[in-house]
Amino acid sequence: MTESMEHSRAFELLELYIFGNLDRDEYDAVQAHLDTGCEECLKRIRELSELSVLLARAVPQKDTPEHIKQGILENTRKEESRSSSNPHKKTARLNWYITGIAAVLIIGLGIGLVLMQMRNSELEDSLAEARDVTNLLESPGMQFVNLEGVDPNPQAFGKVVLDPDKGNAVVYMYRLPQNPEGMEYQLWVMREGKPTSAGVFSVSEGGEAVLALNDLPELDSIPTFLVTIEPEGGKNAPTGMMYLTGPEENGKSKN
Amino acid sequence: MNEGNQHKKHLMPDEAKRTDEALLKLISERDEKALELFYEYHNRLVYNLIRRMLGDSQDAEEVTQEVFMKVWDNADKFDGRRGNVQGWLVTMTRRLAIDRTRSKQYKIRNKEGSLDSGVNPDSIKGLTGKANETAEATEVREVAEALKKIDDSHSEALYLSYYEGYSHSEIAENLNIPLGTVKHRIREAVNKLRKILDIG
Question: How confident is the model at residue A91 (pLDDT cuts 50, 70, 90)?
Answer without folding.
Answer: very low
